[in-house]
């Protein structure tokens, strides 16, 4: 292995982990104290499962994202990757948590944190209220696919594990799609709130593409 390449990879890993730690801490602050404590107490086990889900998704997603990265300069694209990776890993951890139906409402604060950071990166203004409304609406697109996993979570032992895997996968897909459509529109100089219909349409196209890529 080339020594310089190895250094760059180590730097990427460190940058990703720093972004994730900052992101996850901000996400936890948005939650009710009791919910945040449950996630923290089960973090170690959920993180191991989440890393595996995310690694599996990466190989399928990269090709789909190429079109959405067109025109984004390399440095900004790398920063976007770090933010969206942190959000996706957080979403996967939530999906692997033992809280029944947790992904349905916990994805929203994750996505608000992600979209807020992306807007800041592009120097664009951010509306928390409109962002919350849009995020809730788009999360619904994936809820039908995760409902089975949520029901399985109520079954003791093996059921909890099976349900977690299904929900983590869906949570990552929804979060990735939302993140990269946000990047595309911000890079193109479009306002996601003024052009919400376009945003929804692009989200559904990318979300479907991600789901197909994983099959």
Architecture overview:
The chain has 215 residues and is an all-alpha fold. It is 83% helix and 0% strand. The protein has eight helices and no strands. The protein has helices spanning 3-29, 33-41, 43-69, 74-95, 102-121, 128-152, 158-187, 196-213. Helix 3 packs antiparallel against helix 4 (74-95), helix 3 packs parallel to helix 7 (158-187) and helix 4 (74-95) runs antiparallel to helix 7. The longest helix is centred in the C-terminal third of the chain and has 30 residues, at 158-187. It is globular and about 40 Å long.
Q: Would you kindly provide a brief summary of this structure?
A:
This protein has 215 residues and is mainly α. It contains eight helices and no strands.
Topology:
Blueprint (H helix, E strand, L loop, with lengths): L2 H27 L3 H9 L1 H27 L4 H22 L6 H20 L6 H25 L5 H30 L8 H18 L2
């Amino acid at each position: 292995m080339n020594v310089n390449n190895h250094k760059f990879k180590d730097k990427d890993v460190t940058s990703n982990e720093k972004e994730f730690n900052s992101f996850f801490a901000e996400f936890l602050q948005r939650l009710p104290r009791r919910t945040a404590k449950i996630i923290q107490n089960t973090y170690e086990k959920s993180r191991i499962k989440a890393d595996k889900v995310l690694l599996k998704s990466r190989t399928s997603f990269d090709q789909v994202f190429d079109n959405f990265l067109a025109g984004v300069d390399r440095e900004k694209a790398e920063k976007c990757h770090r933010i969206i990776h942190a959000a996706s890993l957080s979403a996967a951890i939530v999906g692997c948590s033992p809280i029944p139906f947790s992904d349905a409402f916990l994805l929203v604060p994750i996505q608000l944190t992600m979209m807020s950071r992306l807007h800041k990166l592009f120097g664009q203004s951010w509306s928390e209220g409109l962002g919350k409304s849009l995020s809730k609406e788009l999360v619904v697109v994936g809820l039908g696919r995760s409902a089975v996993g949520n029901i399985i979570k109520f079954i003791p032992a093996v059921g909890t594990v099976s349900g977690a895997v299904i929900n983590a996968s869906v949570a990552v897909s929804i979060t990735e799609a939302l993140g990269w459509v946000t990047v595309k529109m911000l890079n193109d100089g479009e306002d996601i709130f003024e052009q919400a219909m376009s945003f929804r349409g692009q989200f559904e196209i990318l979300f479907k593409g991600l789901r197909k890529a994983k099959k």
